[in-house]
Amino acid sequence: MIIDVHGHYTTAPPALQAFRNAQLAGGDAVPAPISDDRLRESVEGNQLRILGERGGDVMLLSPRASGMEHHVPDPAVADAWARVSNDLVHRVSELYPQHFAPVAQLPQTPDGNLDGVIAELRRVVEELGFVGCNLNPDPSGTWSGLPLTDESWFPVYEVLQELDVPAMVHVSTACNPNFHTLGAHYLNADTSVFVQLLQSELFRRFPGLRFVIPHGGGAVPYHWGRYRGLAIRYGWQDPAELLGNIFFDTAVYHQAGIDLLTRVVPVANVLFASEMLGAVRGADPETGIAWDDTLRYVEAAGLSPAELAAVCEANARRVYPRLATRLERVAMGA
Fold it and tell me: Which segments of the chain are extended strands (E)?
């Protein structure tokens, strides 16, 4: 089985964006009804078709990352937006339970909105069967907040650990024009969060907490030696000590990048992902291969059959235990 841990519902029906536009305009926003047939149309020619064409079986599906827009400060707006977005992802996952597993958007705001975040996290996991969530380390969009290791985040970590669900570290829209959302902001976040964790003892306090750092970890694999050297210089833990709690996905769009990731990071910490349909669309003109067809690169990375099976399936089942339970239930026809 091929499990893609990083997919986004970027093809949601226009009614979803119309609701968001009404929210941001300050009016009484009420989501328009969306039929099951309209949901089927939105994925059958897109995520579902491409997943099958590329040999994939299951995708962890979450709302559009740049559309989370956590910089919008109103908690009530954030709560409603997350609920509506998550409910659509849940419906798609229930229409195609053998192919999609839901991952949540949280109603974060620059000031935290932790009550809303925790309530939505519990709702989607305990009531709707979500297997994970996306956690934005920079709700402000300007990097004006506190690091993920600050105690202000601890109430969220307590619930994540209690529910035994991992969080993918995923920012949303950049509000600083110096940082392109897709080309810089996302990768800055991946790298910065790793260094924040390297400097902290967060996992001693929360030993069951698990983070998935997407996009191959940003600059982390390329600069692993730098982080080892800084750890020695400043008395931090060795980067390898984080690997019981941190995992990296393969949303890296060239062979050399995948090769580096799988050689620097232990195979047990690498999860297959494409980020489809996400940041980069179309095909590499030099190869004709779609940029986000990352399975080709993983398969060509020189992994043994056992290592390839771990990256493509076993690691996801281990890091996302609620996914493993969901897949077993679906296989039994429940």
Answer: 3-9, 58-63, 100-104, 132-135, 167-169, 211-213, 246-249, 270-271
